[in-house]
């Protein structure tokens, strides 16, 4: 019998800790496929965040470091500066990357730190049970915005790609989603391009993946995908926000 | 050579090629020196966006298996406490330098020793310890750097050098040990890419199962016990026939020595115990003295912090007195002499 599909060799056999319908599994697999296809498992070091994907260090076969909440880009900086010929990536959620770790994110980007950041934006804190995230939409109900996020009280969401695109440091910034097959394919291409940018020494690359949290959104997995398309994508438009990967020799 | 610069040069000679820091007085000479020297020796100097980022960069570099370093002063060290707890929990060796200034809060920028509790007790959450060294001369700053890296690598415990603005700014002649004296220790646990030759390494401090976390803390505590047995460092001065033991470290010890010499001229039998390692605290020295002297006098540039460790060992057997100045005031030898005379019943 012909094998038509298999798990990438760069994922361990550990059981994933994610809820049914959560898109973390898809995104982590896309990263693992990229590492496999580029043949870089032996030289890659991943940095896991604090949040639902905190145990990512158990899922990848490459070397892994688990960072404090929001500090993954700083930890990745220390790794990359010590091991410039290795590949270093972080995998972070919205609370980690755009709230408690905003300074680390912005400054790694503006330094043009030659690392790759995979940013999973599902507009909520999943691990702690569904509190408001920096990317929670206006009006969105969460545990800490029980009457819906009121920007007059809780402030406005952060548009990370748009914000980082104002800086000179980043080489590549793209926002993708994994809500259907065509978009999963695009997400894969973006993640691969981000890793290739690092391999070519182009500098900071980040892929923001608009994602779901059925459990804390209080929706079924299918409803969550529809909610993402109807509410998240208009607010967080997909596309390339910066691409200097084709520029000059580095 | 200035204390801060001597310390920086010593770190480079001990094999440190990765420095991450954030500007704060009175230790900026270390960063400035590193900024100048690191590019010449193929190393990395990086001015981070914050103390928090700097210590996490040290975590990343230490995980990669290199000798990394950061330096700061009291309020900046407070900010690093999160990262230091993680570094200790990940069993990563590194060097952290605290050139103390007066506190609390923004405090002042003059020399102080009010970080004793912060560094020996409070630097980060959880059951953990740090190796803490307190040099008292510029030469000792240099020697301590080599020792601190060596012990940190040996025991996989982060090391802190606790200095103060006075030592950092002081000029004294120094000689540097040979670079090959910096012994390389294998780091098979480093996350530097498995290259297909081993299974993946994980540097992690999350242990969700209580039994597993307790066991890990127990194992680390065994290592701490070894350190307490083997690594207590101190120096004694004129203690042979002393009936009063002054206990002081760092800059305070230098002042105390002058006071002791003057007291000896008046025929007072007083000596000095100078802790060099603050953790492990030199309990052996205090224990031995407790059986011989009639009392202790702790001299610190704080409201009295190290004195708690002295009292723990003395355990009520002998009186333990205190003299300190704080807020950036350096006590004079005369003040200390006056205190010695008060305790020993001599003329004032």
Defining key terms:
heterodimer, A: 250 residues, alpha/beta, Rossmann fold, 7-stranded mixed sheet, 7 strands, globular, B: 348 residues, 5-stranded mixed sheet, 13 helices, thiamine pyrophosphate binding (chain A), oxidoreductase (chain A), THDP-binding (chain A), TPP_enzyme_TPP-bd (chain A)
Structure in words:
The complex is a heterodimer of chains A (250) and B (348). Chain A is an alpha/beta fold and 250 residues long. Chain A is 36% helix and 16% strand. Chain A has one domain: Rossmann fold (3-Layer(aba) Sandwich), CATH 3.40.50. Chain A has a seven-stranded mixed beta sheet, sandwiched between helices. In chain A, strand 5, helix 7 and strand 6 form a beta-alpha-beta unit. Chain B has 348 residues and is of the alpha/beta class. In chain B, the strands form two sheets. A seven-stranded mixed beta sheet of chain B has the order 2-1-3-4-6-5-11, with helices on both faces. Chain B has a five-stranded mixed beta sheet with strand order 8-10-9-12-13, with helices on both faces. The model of chain B has no long low-confidence stretch (mean pLDDT 96). The interface between A and B is large, with 36 and 41 residues.
